[in-house]
Backbone:
């Protein structure tokens, strides 16, 4: 067992984990933050995407011990006092989710994408989301949601 | 009060919030007190005798609670996994239905066949222990592909199925078809494969079983599309305990696409193991395991011939199909290539005679069953490929040949030569709508522009029909179904006027919590915020058949409407009493009961309250309370149809195909929520384009799955797809009270042939006339070179 300290969604945690424990297992099983999902075993689907120090990471690809001293944000940490982040709100209004399983990872990737590129084209959004699989929406409304959220976020910054 | 929430309103979904906040509750999220974990040992061989299993090393690891094998399953008398549909062969014999044990005992018949179940206190311990289970296999000859399985001397999957034939079935009039062929000007023929695909809901399957020895009661949390069917099969066939001792809960389910319809071995085994180890047992599939244990879809090899006149009129259709069943018969498998495939072969066309033969074949592969569309994509694909081929051979425009043969609006109800009677449609309207949306008149300009960029542009079209709203019970019973396919609903009006609806259907992305609430809003005028839709828990919902075959709104929604009818009628009696009028004089509209022609009225909430607080009440003739149930059994299938248009650009140097434009026009009947209906179409289109260009379960000749993870199996990603133009042209279904036809599968059915027709159109200048799905860059590149198009 290894003891690690990290920040998750703004809260400090000290957790005992096996060295082989993945970050996603730490989140789901140790901290019971089950919004981060596992959809594959080859780092292809992106359902497990979280932020580590503000950057998108597939949490099935990172050992929990590598998160020692880092700040992790999962989907549970995106809304503020129950108020949806503009990206979450755009997914809602644009019908960017159906079964909801890929949604947390998709929203985390998309939010980081518009942080890096506040005014993306449709093509940039589509390429930017290539690490995340969705089987329900055909991506059409996800792309719309990301473009809508980007616009909202740009407006808010002005 | 409720303006804008009823039929036709694109209201945002009620269920979204929990998913967006990461608060969805999926099966794997559930951890029960004293939870233990199961991992399966699966056969690495496609066909092998199991000489022995040595679990001693596994059992010695810390935390390991049990290692269970097929021998234990047999000793405890568990039933095999049943097949729910029986097909009768041409010669009158019943199909071969071999045993399907939940853990194999002596012989493994596909890679992934479960051989042992390891249960431990943690998932990591169970995984470690599973690696130490020593299975002594004796590998046997295996066969994976259809043509190889029917060849002389092929390895036998089952001794009781000579030639690996499960059934040899036919439909239609062979003699009439023969006569049409004899008199035809031309016979157009194609040999086609319909590629095997994996459903790949992003949530892998999971099951958590708990036996409560105090109550002597079993609870299963599972990723299913139809909890009651799972409970029925567990109760009657596999676990063999009475239903009242069994509770099946399908909580949030992360997509299904057919794969979660069926009763799987793991569902039985976690329940059974829970009793054995005295703790809840949870299994969660990995993605690689999903490729080896979720039912696959399609996998047909077909020879199809269309008899045509020189003027382009269709005269007859002849189809011979081999359908891969895999090693065992999954729940609905035999129905897919027969009644959900061959009955659709008339498409939206007038074809005077059709004859189809379908041989179902066992192979040493994962079982094949329904995947989004299920049979109808296979029918549409072969028909639409043939139609294009006929147009090419006759020198007729591909749009015109379709227009010439479409069933016209005044020909409904239309009886096809393959059993179905279509109730209504307007195929020329959807054809025109889709062509306009894709700006077909400007195709040549776009082709020229693509050519300037060194790309070959192609246009593809498919006009299609499907059968949904599954299904009339008596009809499917006569065709071999083991169950009725009605749907049930209970509508409970609470004392202060809010409503709970209990439905037998299940939502795993379709948005029932919103659309069904909209149905209630439409009828009762109650805001959708005050309507709760309950699904997925057999302890709460009435016995219903679940969600698949685009049936939820058409069949489940109709059951809700029927139950509401009863509520409205009862309310009239209560209102008549309060308003001192005769029942016949009371009308209900806009959420109010009113004496006709007066301003005397009572709100629905007042009536609900009176029903539960019956102080001033017609108690002699009307019972208190306001709750009713209804079962709706459809009178016919519903027949969504339409036209899908696609343009692609092919890079002749690399063979890469990019779909640049998709415009579709569907007639899915009356629409509850256009935003959700469009979303269903988008998802189906992505899967259909996936099948056409990217996806395939590739087996080698030894039965090893080569595309067994997302590394080897190409899923469509955002950059692979364009935005979609989706249009609707409504003709209301004539035989259900809501007028709905269903939308869940249209994309997956209509678009694959449109994509391939577009690829062939793009490559036609190079001399390419045929390509099989998936049209991968390698296949396209080879086709171009084989045709001598590019040196």
Residues:
């Amino acid at each position: 067992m290894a003891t690690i300290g990290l920040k998750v969604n703004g809260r400090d945690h000290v957790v005992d984990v096996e060295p082989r424990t993945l970050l996603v297992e730490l989140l789901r099983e140790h901290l019971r933050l089950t919004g981060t999902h596992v959809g594959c075993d080859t780092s292809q689907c992106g359902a497990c995407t979280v932020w580590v120090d503000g950057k998108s990471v597939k949490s099935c690809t990172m050992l929990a011990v590598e998160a020692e001293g880092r700040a992790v944000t999962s989907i549970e940490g995106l809304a503020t006092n129950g108020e949806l982040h503009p990206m979450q709100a755009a997914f809602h209004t644009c019908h960017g989710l159906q079964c909801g399983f890929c949604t947390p990872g998709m929203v985390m990737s998309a939010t980081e994408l518009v942080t890096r590129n506040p005014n993306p084209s449709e093509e940039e959004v589509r390429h930017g989301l290539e690490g995340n699989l969705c089987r329900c929406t055909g991506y059409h409304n996800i792309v719309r949601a990301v473009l809508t959220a980007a616009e909202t976020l740009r407006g808010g910054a002005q | 009060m409720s303006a804008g929430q009823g039929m036709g309103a694109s209201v945002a979904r009620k269920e979204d919030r929990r998913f967006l906040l990461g608060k969805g509750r999926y099966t794997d999220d559930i951890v029960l007190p004293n939870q233990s974990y199961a991992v399966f040992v699966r056969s690495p061989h496609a066909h092998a005798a199991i000489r022995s299993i040595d679990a001693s090393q596994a059992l010695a690891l810390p935390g390991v609670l049990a290692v269970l094998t097929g021998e234990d399953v047999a000793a405890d008398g568990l039933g095999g996994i049943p097949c729910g549909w029986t097909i009768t062969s041409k010669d009158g014999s019943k199909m071969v239905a071999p045993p399907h044990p939940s853990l194999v005992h002596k012989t493994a018949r596909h890679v992934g066949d479960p051989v042992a179940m390891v249960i431990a206190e943690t998932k990591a311990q169970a995984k470690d222990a599973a690696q130490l289970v020593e299975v002594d296999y004796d590998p046997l000859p295996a066969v994976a592909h259809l043509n190889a399985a029917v060849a002389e001397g092929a390895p036998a999957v089952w001794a009781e199925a000579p030639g690996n034939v499960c059934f040899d079935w036919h439909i239609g009039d062979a003699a009439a078809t023969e006569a049409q062929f004899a008199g035809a000007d031309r016979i157009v023929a194609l040999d086609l494969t319909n590629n095997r695909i994996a459903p790949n809901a992003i949530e892998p399957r999971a099951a958590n079983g708990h036996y409560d020895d105090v109550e002597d009661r079993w609870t299963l949390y599972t990723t299913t599309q139809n909890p009651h069917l799972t409970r029925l099969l567990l109760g009657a066939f596999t676990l063999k305990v009475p239903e009242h001792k069994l509770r099946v809960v399908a909580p949030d389910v992360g997509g299904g696409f057919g794969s979660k319809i069926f009763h799987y071995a793991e569902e039985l085994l976690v329940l059974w193991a829970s009793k054995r180890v005295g703790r809840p047992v949870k299994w969660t599939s990995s993605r690689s395991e999903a490729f080896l244990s979720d039912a696959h879809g399609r996998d047909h090899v077909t020879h199809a011939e269309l008899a045509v006149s020189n003027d382009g009129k269709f005269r007859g259709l002849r189809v011979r199909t081999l359908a891969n069943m895999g090693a065992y018969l999954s729940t609905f498998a035999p129905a897919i290539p027969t009644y959900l495939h061959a009955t659709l072969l008339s498409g939206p066309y007038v074809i005077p005679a059709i004859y189809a033969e379908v041989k179902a074949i066992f192979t040493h592969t994962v079982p094949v069953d329904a995947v989004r569309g299920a049979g109808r994509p296979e029918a549409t694909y072969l028909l639409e490929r043939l139609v294009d081929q006929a147009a090419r051979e006759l020198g007729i425009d591909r749009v015109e040949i379709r227009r010439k043969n479409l069933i016209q609006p005044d020909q409904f109800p239309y009886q096809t030569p393959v059993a179905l009677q279509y109730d209504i449609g307007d195929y020329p309207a959807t054809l025109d709508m889709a062509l306009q949306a894709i700006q077909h008149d400007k195709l040549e300009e776009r082709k020229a522009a693509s050519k300037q960029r060194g790309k070959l542009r192609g246009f593809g079209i498919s006009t299609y029909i499907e059968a949904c709203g599954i299904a009339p019970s008596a009809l499917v019973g006569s065709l071999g179904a083991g169950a009725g396919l009605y749907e049930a609903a209970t509508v409970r009006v609470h004392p202060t006027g809010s409503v709970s609806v209990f439905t037998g259907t299940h939502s795993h992305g379709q948005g029932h919590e919103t659309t069904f609430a909209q149905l209630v809003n439409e009828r009762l005028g109650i805001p959708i915020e005050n309507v709760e839709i309950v699904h997925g828990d057999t302890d709460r919902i009435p016995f219903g058949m679940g969600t698949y075959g685009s049936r939820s709104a058409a069949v489940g929604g109709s059951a809700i409407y029927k139950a509401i009818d009863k509520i409205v009628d009862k309310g009239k009696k209560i209102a008549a009493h309060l308003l001192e009028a005769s029942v016949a004089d009371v009308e209900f509209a806009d959420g109010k009961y009113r004496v006709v022609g007066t301003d005397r009225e009572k709100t629905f909430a007042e009536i609900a309250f009176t029903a539960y607080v019956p102080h001033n009440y017609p108690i002699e003739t009307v019972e208190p309370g306001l709750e009713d149930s209804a079962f709706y059994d459809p009178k016919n299938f519903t027949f969504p149809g339409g036209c899908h248009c696609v343009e692609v650009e092919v890079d002749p140097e690399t063979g890469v195909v990019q779909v640049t434009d998709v415009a579709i026009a569907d007639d899915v009947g009356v629409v509850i929520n256009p935003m959700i209906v469009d979303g269903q179409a988008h998802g189906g289109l992505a899967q259909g384009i996936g099948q056409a260009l990217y996806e395939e379960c590739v087996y080698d000749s030894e039965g090893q799955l080569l595309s067994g993870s997302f590394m080897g199996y190409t899923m469509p990603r955002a950059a692979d797809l364009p935005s979609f133009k989706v249009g609707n042209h409504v003709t209301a279904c004539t035989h259900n009270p809501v007028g709905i036809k269903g939308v869940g599968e249209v994309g997956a059915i209509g678009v694959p042939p449109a994509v391939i027709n577009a690829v062939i159109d793009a490559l036609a200048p190079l001399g390419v006339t045929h390509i099989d799905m998936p049209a991968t860059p390698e296949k396209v590149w080879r086709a171009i070179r084989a045709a001598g198009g590019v040196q």
